[in-house]
Amino acid sequence: MPIQHSLWSLTGDVKPLVATRLESEKLLEDLIVDNPSILNPSWMVIGRQVITDFRGVIDVLALQPDGSPVLIELKREKTPRDVTSQLIDYAAWVEKISSERLQQIYESFIPNGNLQIDYESRFNTEWDDENLRGDTQLVLVASELDSASERIVNYLSDRGISINVLFFQAFEDDGRLYLSRSWLVDPVVVQTAPNPRQHKGTWNGEYYANFGVDQSYRWEDGRKYGFITASGGPWYTQTLRMLDAGDRVWVTIPKTGFVGVGIVEGEAQPVTEFTVSIDGQHIPITEAVTEGNYLADGDGENCAWFVPVKWTHTVSEKEAVREAGFFGNQNSVAKPKSEKWDHTVRTLKSRWGVD
Questions:
Q1: Could you read off the pLDDT of 220-260 as tens digits, one per residue?
Q2: Which of 323, 329, 73 is nearest to 195 (CA)?
Q3: Please, what are the domains in the chain?
Q4: For the chain, what is the total number of helices (H) and then of strands (E)?
Q5: What global pTM score does this model have?
Q6: How far apart are CA 252 and CA 132, in angstroms?
Q7: Percentage of residues in the chain with pLDDT exceeding 90?
Q8: Cβ count near 29 (within 10 Å)
Q9: How far apart are the C-alpha atoms of 47 and 32, rounded to whole Å?
Q10: Distance, CA of 75 to CA of 344 (rounded, Å)
Q11: Which helix (H) or strand (E) holds 81?
Q12: Do the beta carbons of residue 222 and residue 240 sit within 8 Å?
């Protein structure tokens, strides 16, 4: 059924806010480009009104932290069939795009901008042309969502196409305008869904996790106090919510290797709520003696989130296990369905003597 929003003011007498319409879809596009965080604070907008080789026009083009493209199309007055077919057509073009062409698009959007330098500065990771071949995410932006669009998107999503709808609704209260948003499909589901062309097989029940190490986040802290952590916005932190108590997770440090395996002991928590056990007492992680500074990213959407883990086996960074053919993924947490993951887990179990 079509998505509908309602908002109430709780100041004074409880009263509903009046739903209204934005003046134009262009206004919504302007808002997205000027404030990309209303879509996803972890995405990097690199183009607007991008003309494809087939004379199509992509409303907004962005990159995810792993370098894979995001195509953002406003529904406007187009029929559900037209707008979804356009998105798929654009995806077919982007799938074969070169990094040189992408740089041209970026220069048109940011005069004299250097995509590789700006990407590496934004995400603190190296540019890799192969990441452009990642799973392209399709996003339909609508101020109203009809049943036909919802059925088409759900059908494609169920069949392995990374497609989602972001529904915006405007409200007015005493001359003030408010904007609400809602995703049709949980972004975690879309972000972590395996690409059926690249990952064939069944999940073995064991999770993969990244433990990013820098000046603020140190593996020895996680090893000592029993946790994995991520920060930098929802793209990085939301996948931590995939983990439940009792799950087994294998942890790797990017570009270093696997350093531990353990059993999850609780749900993901923000830095302001997470505690660690010291001499039988639970104290806030921010008050524990740590090598890292877990308040470095502040609060809100960018703050650090933690998952408590009881370690079965850990090693230091110098002892990390890294071999050709091991599974790798940019997500903070993933549930892989590939032969590489099966091979990785078997090898680590044998190497570390884990049942």
A1: 999 999 999 998 888 888 899 999 999 999 999 988 999 99
A2: 329
A3: 8-191 (3.40.1350.10), 207-352 (3.10.590)
A4: 9, 18
A5: 0.72
A6: 23
A7: 38
A8: 18
A9: 12
A10: 43
A11: helix 80-94
A12: no
